[in-house]
Design goal:
- With 203 residues, the chain is an alpha+beta fold.
- It is built from four helices and ten strands; from the N terminus they run ββββββββββαααα.
- Strands 1, 5, 8, 9 and 10 form a five-stranded mixed sheet that branches. A three-stranded antiparallel sheet has the order 2-7-6, with no helix packed on it. It has a two-stranded antiparallel sheet with strand order 3-4.
- Strand 6 and strand 7 form a beta hairpin.
- Helix 3 packs antiparallel against helix 4.
- The termini are far apart.
- 25% of the residues are buried.
Amino acid sequence: MHYSVNDIPAEVLVLAPERDGEQLDLEPYTGIEVTLLDPTYAPVSTSGFVVSVDQDSLTLEWPEETVLTAPGVWRIVPVLVSQTGPRLTLSAVPVVVEQRSGWHSLASARASEWADAPLDDVQLYTVLEAAREQCEEFAPAYSGTVPTRYRQAQLVQARALWQSVKSNGQSQIGGEGFAVTVFPMDWSVKRLLRPLRGRPVAT
């Protein structure tokens, strides 16, 4: 699931927790507490999620206020509570929040010719951001709209990063058990960012 900075999500989040591959029985639990963590893992104060619990699923409605105020991977941490005392913390639900910057987004990357782009939002966001940072570090500074060739270089480099992760089974980066090894820029990416200038030949 992914949004843009300052979005107020309208969709309802439905979770069906499992334990050891089987549906978790939620009947003993009478309520749910929800903590929202920002990209630095700091808890965020909100007016609260609207939550409900039935026998095999949880329903969460987002607060009616702007809480997704920064780009990055946010996390929703649900905790089941019961009248008798036991509490059960469920796996965090990642939420990707993107900045509208002119660089590639999850949607634009998937709409490109990148046929095997990661289906997981966190994985795709991670490689796109890593590639963007590398491109900005290497490319000449610019003002205004991101140049088209910079966006293309970001996409090519993101694909290279993703291929390096898939080919190296020991790579571990970032949250959610995902990691990206910093992959050297290919010459073709460098040429997109810093094209060779032709020189007249003296005769």
